[in-house]
Automatic annotation (TrEMBL):
Gene3D superfamilies, per database record: Outer membrane efflux proteins (OEP)
Annotated organism of origin: Brevundimonas bullata
Alphabetic keyword roster: Coiled coil, Signal
Statement: the UniProt record of this protein carries the keyword Ribonucleoprotein: no
PANTHER family: BLR4935 PROTEIN, OUTER MEMBRANE CATION EFFLUX PROTEIN
Keyword Signal: yes
Protein name: Cobalt-zinc-cadmium efflux system outer membrane protein
GO molecular function, one term: efflux transmembrane transporter activity
């Protein structure tokens, strides 16, 4: 699609019309993405969220199991059989049937249940944190897909403007008011705009593929109709909060403290009670038996286990302190970024308005022969750049809102989890 130097103006005009023809006939989009709130409901059933739900169900199962007492033991013992003298055969046998039960003294069962309750609480907060993470990631992916869609439309418009400018330049070349070089430059700019359009199409398709994957849908999403970039962010709560990720660490610290009690109880002796029935074959009589067994803690008092559990408590407390400091710093940074992004959106919109008017006036002057093609090219590039900056500013605002919402424990843009 390039012009050779001896090419005459009429042929150059024909080349420009060929470029314009290439700009037409782009495939139409289908399967538009639903609104963000509806897509979020779908995304919360995707594998990432389903895994957190399964982890919570597992923690609830462990809690139910922690409250179950140990099973009793059944024992059968036969004495005084198959010996010599009066103990030949089984006529002098003594048969004892016993049932024994671990009494779980020293608060063992309560400590075990307390740990399981804290672990269940941590799993619940982890589930909530996962849902917040899904909501934030989906908001970013939704905004990026919409931004890619707008950039593709902008690239289409830039191509149309480049072709229109090239056509106007070639008309001036045909009239002898501009050198042939201007026509060649116009066609080159149109070709570059076409390449930019192909790149924007690839970015758009990649962004929608990512959105489809996060939403967990089977049908590929290819367009956005309900805008998220133009939506105003939700008002901030004004301070950092203990979000689910931090509350999960609080619960994990409680579980670690409970393990200290569990390990302490393990260092105390096991106590078992038993009751049974004894049969005396020689006397043809029956009697009851009862007993208590107790371990002697001479060697193993589980001191190492207690020390390890206490160290785990200190580690959990350190993680909690660090997470709270990080959450506060992240919240302050996210709030500042969102405020800056909001100001940038206002400035970018004003720049688009100014660039649009500048291009309109320059186009009028160019067609009247008062301004050069270089000036027209400059204002057109400024307009395209201003619109691209406006898209980037809105995308930055959406990203900041998604991050701030996650740090405040809410869904972005007022959505409900």
């Amino acid at each position: 699609m390039s012009l050779s130097p001896p090419c005459r103006p009429p042929r150059a005009v024909g080349c420009a019309f060929a470029v314009l023809a290439l700009a037409a006939g782009f495939p139409a989009w289908a399967d538009p993405a639903p609104a963000f709130e509806q897509l979020l409901t779908q995304a919360l059933t995707a594998p990432a969220a389903a895994e957190a739900d399964a982890n919570l169900a597992a923690a609830e199962g462990r809690l139910a199991q922690a409250g179950v007492r140990p099973n009793p033991e059944l024992g059968l013992e036969v004495e005084n059989i198959l010996g010599r003298g009066p103990f030949q055969g089984v006529d002098g046998a003594e048969t004892t049937l016993t049932v024994s039960q671990d009494l779980e003294l020293w608060g063992r069962r309560g400590a075990r249940v307390g740990v399981a309750q804290s672990e269940r609480e941590a799993a619940r907060w982890r589930r909530d944190a996962s849902r917040l993470q899904v909501a934030a990631a989906l908001a970013v992916a939704y905004a990026e897909a919409e931004a890619a869609q707008r950039r593709y439309a902008l690239a289409e418009e830039a191509l149309e403007l480049a072709v229109a400018d090239a056509r106007a330049a070639l008309i001036l070349v045909e009239e002898g008011r501009e050198p042939l070089l201007r026509g060649i430059q116009g066609e080159s700019e149109a070709a570059a705009a076409r390449a930019a359009l192909d790149e924007a199409r690839a970015e758009r398709d990649a962004a929608f593929a990512e959105l489809t994957a996060l939403a967990g849908g089977q049908t590929p999403l290819t367009s956005v109709e309900s805008s998220l970039l133009d939506r105003s962010p939700t008002a901030s709560v004004g301070q950092a909060a203990d979000v689910p990720a931090v509350l999960a660490l609080v619960a994990e610290r409680g579980a670690a403290q409970g393990r200290v009690r569990v390990e302490t109880a393990r260092g105390r002796p096991d106590v078992r009670a038993s009751v049974g029935v004894r049969r005396f074959e020689a006397e043809d009589a029956t009697a009851l038996t009862a007993g208590v067994s107790l371990q002697l803690p001479l060697f193993d008092r589980n001191r190492g286990g207690v020390l390890a559990a206490e160290a785990e408590v200190r580690a959990a407390e350190a993680r909690l302190r660090g997470a709270r400091l990080d959450a506060d710093a992240d919240w302050r940074a996210a709030a500042a970024r969102r405020d800056a992004a909001a100001s940038r959106v206002v400035a970018a919109d004003a720049a688009v308005t100014a660039a649009t008017e500048a291009y309109r006036l320059t186009r009028i002057g160019f067609e009247a022969g008062r301004l050069s093609q270089l000036e027209l090219r400059s204002t057109r590039s400024g307009l395209v750049q201003a619109r691209d900056v406006a898209i980037a500013a809105r995308l930055m605002r959406a990203r900041a809102e998604a991050e701030l919402a996650r740090l405040e424990g809410r869904a972005p843009f007022g959505a409900q989890l």
